[in-house]
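Example record used in the benchmark description.
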Amino acid sequence: MKRRSEFKAVAKGIRVHRPEFTLQARRREVGEPVIPGPRVGFTVTKKVGNAVVRNRIKRRLRAIASEFQREFDGATDYVIVARRETLGAPYARLGDELRQALGAAGAKLDRPVVRKRA
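Model output (structure tokens):
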């Protein structure tokens, strides 16, 4: 994902918090353009560090995401919002956290929507 509007749309979806990152997910609507496979975006704010630190974190997250690509749902958009802890966390732990977050996100997305009565 590249456009701000796509990131904002995913931000309206569900969130799964982990110590190293927050995973945001949103299923694509029926009327949206058909895009094969999952789309994954990465966000690292300036609060995390300078450009070198932010780019290093994004590289780590991209590597983890590509390793677990088969576990992403093909009809869903994801955004991984990194925290500073991402930089120092062991690679294996990041993978475990991502796997757990994807499972939790899938469970939340599969829940029936309960509308509140006015």
